[in-house]
Amino acid sequence: MTTTPEPTDLDAFVYSRQPGYDETATRAAFAGAVPLRTIVIFCYDPRAAAIPTQLAELWPDEIYPGDLILDDHGNKVGSTATIFPIVVAGGRATDALRSITIGHHLFGLQRVVVVHHTNCGTSSFTPRGLLEAYRTEEGIDLSNMYSSDSLAIGHLETSLSYDVNLLRRSPGIPASVEIIGMVFDIDRNEFTVLTPPGG
Ligand SMILES: [Zn+2]
């Protein structure tokens, strides 16, 4: 049996704890305040940080990072950004699913872009090497914790194709959402589309 904890001061701005909270109205207000259209998944490597900015330069209908929208009291009530980044090791899709589902629920998504990049740190080790190192150095067995196909990048076209298929087959992403896979050349700042929409 679970009990609902009493609200604390930290909960003063938790939406679902406000008097008269209306979930449907709150969701509609969120969708109006946030023009999210596209989620971009990419690596947490600092050299990859400009990926969403550069995609927004390539695609005139996208805005990133955009501007914050303030109300008369200076409260942050929205943003003009149409791209939300999901920044994870290697830009692997497995880490992004929950965030995509929530993003679509709140704001309505049109496309998801998976970007893997050249010279990625996740291509410097193998799944087997990582599992073995954890076993011998930490005494931890991770062999049942992650899919070995998502742990490291051994071939960019293979990893990208795997991730696009993982997202496309996931029940957490409606079929109306376009999935695009791209490789980013970290030194030349160039994108190559490897899995175009519908491909
Ligand atoms: Zn990387």
UniProtKB/TrEMBL annotation:
SMART domains tied to this protein: Pro_CA
Protein name (database record): carbonic anhydrase
InterPro entries (alphabetical): Carbonic_anhydrase, Carbonic_anhydrase_sf
Organism listed in the record: Mycolicibacterium aichiense
Chain's role: Catalyzes the reversible hydration of carbon dioxide to form bicarbonate.
Gene3D superfamilies for this protein: Carbonic anhydrase (3.40.1050.10)
EC number: 4.2.1.1
Record-stated family: Belongs to the beta-class carbonic anhydrase family.
Annotated catalysed reactions: hydrogencarbonate + H(+) = CO2 + H2O
Cofactor: Zn(2+)
Gene Ontology molecular functions: carbonate dehydratase activity; zinc ion binding
Keywords noted in UniProt: Metal-binding, Zinc
